[in-house]
Design brief:
The structure is a homodimer of 242-residue chains. In chain A, 28% of the residues lie in helices and 26% in strands. Chain A contains six helices and eleven strands. In chain A, strands 1, 2, 3, 4, 5, 6, 7, 8 and 9 form a nine-stranded mixed beta sheet that branches. A two-stranded antiparallel sheet of chain A has the order 10-11. Chain A binds a DNA duplex (27 and 27 nucleotides) through helix 5.
Chain lengths: 242, 242
DNA sequence: AAAATAGTGTCTATTAGACATTATTGG
DNA sequence: CCAATAATGTCTAATAGACACTATTTT
């Protein structure tokens, strides 16, 4: 609408929260959380987020949350996830939160938390299969369960649901890997996102046939077995798909 | 976040706009629009929308827009689409709009506009194929082009993009049909949404194999040819899929 | 009988899963 | 040579498109 009846009942607080997602080298889903230093949910863990400024788009607010709260600057895959507007999400005020999710290679996670004392890398436990959806739980690297603030257990769950669905038709696996990777590494990313193993042969065929990957000519050395060919993401191919 | 830094820069206006979608019997995409009676965009056509109330969830605001602005009450498929937060969407104020889309059988569109003088059923022209996305144009039933207010040409475009993608994995075609329908009618719905013809044989096979439709035993009479079997949507089957 | 759509059967091309086999490296 | 993974080849099952054919209704 944008006003026809001019009964502007009230002006809510609007925040942007970002679900940062990554995959650890041992194949588990990771997210980056910040510890709250005041009530409500003091000491609980929360998604990096900011209030939306007057002259700030939602995308800019998401980039600011990534930079100032999570310590992730520069080029990152970010996409809008969902907007949460339940009445009692925050026990003090009515707050509407526009959630985004970002896909970040593990290496950037590690350097980000090294610079940011209030941030932690958490493992995501997904207690449901496929895209059925639901809440998640998070653990720190010592396997201790972390308490999540607000409805952030639900927001992270929806982010996982989204990337599981999206993996089937969009080349988002590449966002979670460094520039060069083996096909087996890409497969591990897919398996971690989907939460189940996939067929190696058909995965290789599908990826090679898609034109999304191109051989770099280099190989992953230092292994005790035949070195795998290194590939890079062919950005040309995706843009032509629109 | 939901506040840690207590710099609440400003409190924006938040609205909910609803893209109502339907399919006409001749196979074109329809939407329901309301005419603006004041500036900006006076006399232009806009999506039904309301300001979000203090004690109103986003879903409740969408239901209120459907009921009070569009004249559609009762059970309707409604789902959140996207949240728009560009700085100059509305030339007066910074307004953040949470868009929803609703799928409504054509019959309910017709009774709604009959009761609502300010509303019109518009044909949607989609100038792009597949899910590449973009803006749309709208025409009234006399084929005259209608001017859309704000960024609503873009919002409707994203709604079309969404249902095109969703049709491939979710049973949303049924939301656009009355309780009983023939398989050919369901196919026409799919073709109208997708914007291209689809194979009759494989569509029938896929639908019958899916278990989503069940024969009612009745037939579509009054035709000048063999009457088609009438089916109904098997809700049991979808809920088990999650 | 003619016209028109409903509905069935069959062939083919594509794709994913399963599984076997060969290739290449370090130890 | 052995262990381990890379990479290829082949068979099968499932599915979508194409197309031919039969069925059923009204005029």
């Amino acid at each position: 609408m944008d006003s026809t009846t001019f009964t502007k009942n009230f002006l809510p607080d609007v925040t942007v929260d970002v679900v940062l997602l990554s995959i650890s080298s041992n194949g588990s889903l990771l997210t980056l959380l910040t510890q709250r230093d005041e009530d409500p949910f003091k000491n609980a863990w929360a998604l990096p987020g900011v209030f939306v400024g007057r002259n700030e788009t939602l995308e800019n607010a998401a980039a600011r949350a990534l930079r100032d709260k999570a310590g992730i600057a520069g080029d990152v895959f970010v996409e809008q996830l969902f907007t949460f507007g339940s009445l009692n999400r925050d026990p003090r005020d009515r707050i509407i939160s526009v959630a985004y999710y970002a896909l970040v290679p593990e290496g950037r996670f590690i350097t980000a938390v090294a610079r940011n004392a209030g941030a932690v890398i958490a493992h995501i436990d997904v207690p449901w299969t496929g895209v059925s959806g639901g809440t998640v739980q998070v653990r720190n690297e010592a396997d201790k369960k972390l308490k999540l603030a607000f409805d952030h257990d639900r927001i992270i769950g929806i982010a996982v649901q989204r990337i599981r669905g999206k993996l089937n038709y969009a080349p988002i696996g590449f966002e979670l890997l460094p520039d060069e990777f083996t096909l087996f590494e890409l497969q591990h990313i897919h398996e971690a996102v989907l939460g189940h193993n996939i067929n190696k042969d058909s995965f290789r065929r599908k990826m090679l046939a898609s034109g999304l990957v191109e051989e770099t000519g280099r190989r992953r050395g230092g292994t005790a077995y035949r070195p795998a060919a290194l590939y890079s993401f062919n950005k040309e191919e995706t843009t032509t798909h629109g």
